[in-house]
Design goal:
Layout (H helix, E strand, L loop, with lengths): L16 E3 L2 E3 L12 E6 L2 H6 L14 E9 L5 E9 L3 H13 L17 H6 L25 E3 L7 E3 L2 E3 L22 H7 L4 E2 L7 E2 L2 E3 L4
Antiparallel strand pairs: 1-2, 2-3, 3-4, 4-5, 6-11, 7-8, 7-10, 9-11
Length: 222
């Protein structure tokens, strides 16, 4: 579909070897750091049946979505494998950015499909869960969220809440509205996390004006 065009469909240059759907990135690992791994696969029948984050009327069909399994560093200082669902046209830039975060050992609390939280964005955020696809609208608006298209990701939402007119989402992130703090998992203007996504053409919600969405990255800045 043309709205998912852009250069992403041409594919981002990975310095990686793809075998059986898994991307092995040379040079990302060392004796003390397990190698970065990411895999991209179609949504199989079993997963599709369990996907409460998708329903009839969503702006993208399940056939255009992909399951991404990717390495990340946890708050426990250990390497983990997380899961995201993204639109097939946007898996490459997100994996590239997450590879950069992994190499920088940027900590991510957890990365589970929103189905683990009943596909509730509020519950997922409260659990500090990093997530991508969720077929939902923009709160207080009559339009689809970029998450409903699988072309946005929210990272560490507790440490990086959304703030609009004094309303903080998730509420537990209120103590992190002081962005002069330098706590584990926070994202700041111009830092390595923002630069990693800017390098693949994605935009940070922390630069917005009427709303500050510090957890949010999207392909089009919305």
């Amino acid at each position: 579909m043309q709205r998912f065009g852009h250069s992403y469909r041409m594919g981002w240059a990975f310095t990686a070897l793809t075998l059986a759907g898994t991307l092995f990135v040379p040079g990302a690992g060392s004796q003390t750091q397990p190698p970065f791994r990411a895999s991209v696969s179609s949504i199989g029948p079993a997963l599709a049946k369990s996907m409460t984050s998708w329903h009839r009327g969503c702006p993208v069909p399940i056939s255009e979505l992909r399951l991404v399994e990717v390495s990340f560093w946890g708050f426990d200082g250990r390497a983990h494998q997380g899961k995201l669902i993204l639109h097939m046209s946007y898996t490459s830039p997100v994996v590239t950015a997450l590879r950069t975060l992994y190499e920088a050992r940027f900590p991510i609390r957890r990365m589970q499909l929103v189905e683990a939280y009943g596909s509730s964005d509020d519950r997922s955020m409260a659990a500090d869960n990093t997530s991508a696809f969720n077929c939902r609208g923009v709160p207080g608006a009559g339009s689809w969220s970029e998450h409903a298209y699988g072309r946005a990701i929210d990272i560490n939402p507790l440490e990086n809440p959304a703030v609009r007119q004094g309303v903080v989402s998730p509420p537990g992130g209120r103590k992190y509205t002081n962005r002069s703090k330098q706590s584990k998992g926070m994202i700041h203007a111009g830092d390595a996390t923002v630069r990693a996504f800017e390098a693949v053409g994605w935009h940070w919600g922390g630069y917005w004006h009427s709303l500050k969405d510090y957890q949010h990255f999207s392909w089009n800045g919305q």
